Amino acid sequence: MERSPRERMVYSAAQLVRARGLAGTGVREIVEHANAPRGSFQHYFPGGKDQLVGEALLWAGDFAAKWAARYPETTSDPTPSGLFAHMVEPWKEEFAKRGYERGCPVMASVADLGGTDTPLTGQIRAALNRWEQAVAEELVRMGIPVPRAHHLAILMISTLEGAIMFARLHHDVTPLNTAVATLSPALTS
Amino acid sequence: MERSPRERMVYSAAQLVRARGLAGTGVREIVEHANAPRGSFQHYFPGGKDQLVGEALLWAGDFAAKWAARYPETTSDPTPSGLFAHMVEPWKEEFAKRGYERGCPVMASVADLGGTDTPLTGQIRAALNRWEQAVAEELVRMGIPVPRAHHLAILMISTLEGAIMFARLHHDVTPLNTAVATLSPALTS
DNA sequence: TCCGTTCTATGACAGCTGTCATAGAACGGT
DNA sequence: ACCGTTCTATGACAGCTGTCATAGAACGGA
């Protein structure tokens, strides 16, 4: 159950980026937050901050993808809007239990360097793609045609991201509920 | 037509925050970008970076609000999904003409300090509120009940923000078109 | 001309950033 | 016991951050 310093650093990187943004998070801060030896950062991540953050982003993308893939386990009558509610659910829990400090790491990264085209940008793109792909796959599993499944996946993730922004800013989860309730007609048709 | 150094700094602050994020933008960079005297920053903004950025955010919120309010001028048959398309339009133009460097300043700010509760956070909240209010007012003008108008406004802005993220990351405007087309059923019912 | 206000110029401050260089410890196999 | 690999420790580097202090210029009224 004890995670290695390396894993802890990746995890801490993700959490801190979620809270303070990409440029707002320093490597020393990450190392300290992970209770990891400072020298180990250099050893495990010779690619520097970009490598560490890149892995953290990919990890987060996987996490979101896996969560989406677990939707069928929760119901015997899967629907698109049910899937969306399932995607929103952990965010409601996060905010209710842990406060509004942490947002979405992908959004945070795109905000800082969405326009650039670096190796790190590629990893952010990959992280988002995994997530979107997983959501689309669930929709296809419900019988939705592949092209529309991707359109809906983009719509769902887009709306969720924006709703997260509202929720954090207002320190209130109701925007998330509003999104679920109001987006529904776009998903059921 | 010549804008004052003060105005130029506010404007430059907005543009740079849009591109590099809040923590990723330095005051010296803003001053230089604005071709403003460095000493003037201290004079016009004794509140420091927070004051400057706060004004930039409010300016951006006003800008978005005014754009939404101009929707009725563009059509004789206003509809919610028409309004949404109107909101998306300038972003398609921005990306097509100026590239994907600049995103939404509100989103960028929330990403960096959405969890905190500082005076600056309050101004971000105010900026977003102005925008949301303006959108809701347009919806009310179409005969939509006030509560639902606010729900739809939140939905529209949320989806737009997320779609902007997609577009910047993929260097492609189609997520914006996808959002407009796919969100429509949620707006027309 | 004098004076007060408004604006600009410049240098410095402590603190942080990411990165690198160098060294030492810990460990496992032989 | 020896040695090579893996991991950790520590100090330093140039460069940047936001802020402050102090000074001077420019300007407009009396």
CATH architecture of the domain at 58-188 in chain A: Orthogonal Bundle
Question: How big is the Rg of chain A?
Answer: 17 Å
Largest interface: A-B, 53 and 53 residues
The major sheet of chain A is characterized as: none
CATH topology of the domain at 58-188 in chain A: Tetracycline Repressor, domain 2
Termini separation of chain A (Å)? Answer: 45 Å
Strand content of chain A: under 5%
> What is the 3D shape of chain A?
globular
Helix content range of the residues of chain A, please?
Answer: over 70%
Tally of separate helices of chain A: 9
Could you describe the 3D structure shown?
- 2 copies of one chain form a homodimer.
- With 189 residues, chain A is mainly α.
- The first copy, chain A, has a domain at 58-188: Tetracycline Repressor, domain 2.
- Chain A contains 9 helices and no strands.
- Chain A has helices spanning 5-20, 27-33, 38-44, 48-69, 80-98, 105-113, 119-141, 146-170, 174-188.
- In chain A, α7 (119-141) crosses α8 (146-170).
- Chain A is globular, with a radius of gyration of 17 Å.
- The relative contact order of chain A is 0.13.
- The model of chain A has no long low-confidence stretch (mean pLDDT 96).
- The interface between A and B is large, with 53 and 53 residues.
- The structure holds a DNA duplex (30 and 30 nucleotides).
